[in-house]
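Re: the multi-chain job from yesterday

Posting the exact lines I submitted so nobody has to dig through the queue logs.
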Amino acid sequence: MHSRFATNGLSSYATARTIKPWQGGRIIPGRGTSDLHVGQSVNDIESVLGGPDEKRPLADQFFYVYRKQGIDVDFGASRQRVERLFFYDENVEGHSRRPTISIDGIGFRTPKTKVINVLGKPQCEGGPVRVANRKKTWIYYDSGLQFDFDSQDRVIIISVCDPKLNRSANES
Amino acid sequence: MTSGQRNVRKRNPKRVATVEEHLTSVKGSLKELSRKPNKTPADILELDKLRAHVKHLSKKRAEKSEPHGRQGERH
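And the result, structure tokens for all chains:
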């Protein structure tokens, strides 16, 4: 007698159900948004965003890349918990759509001067450096918030991390 | 009779100066990008490219021209 194995139940939780496109939200410095934040597990992220378009291990970071949602999630060296979240404007570093996010009225394409007026003087800034055919600069706040700007000084990437993560980098 | 130092390998000062200028600029970009706190995948790839470029230019800076006595030699 031949027994048949049912394999339809073997797919992971995230891919087994249909996931709505992420709705976006308000960014909380050092955390992320209400449903997408630092410290979440791989399963938590997949249940919100679905399976990634690409998984990229680079140096001591491990990225889930969501090109169509304009998001990258960095699980760090442990590959277990979210260390950093990156939100991209459309057509930036291979991302086709921008997520709906904001922080105190700051969003994509906001001028650098406005960001500094609203959030104050950053603790660290750098650039310009050419990355992926685009000259960019950045500012970083000790609260774990970072903004990347294009050559016209407009926000193209917003990233959030646990402030403890970059403490040693800022001290040097 | 000596060969008049014709076979001593030399450096072209103009070429060395150009390479050094380029090397300084690439090293500057590398330093700047290295201290960025939150690096995107593209930043990390660019860092790798810059490191490789610094290595290449450092090698090129140390390179000497071909032996003088061989210049213009027909094969």
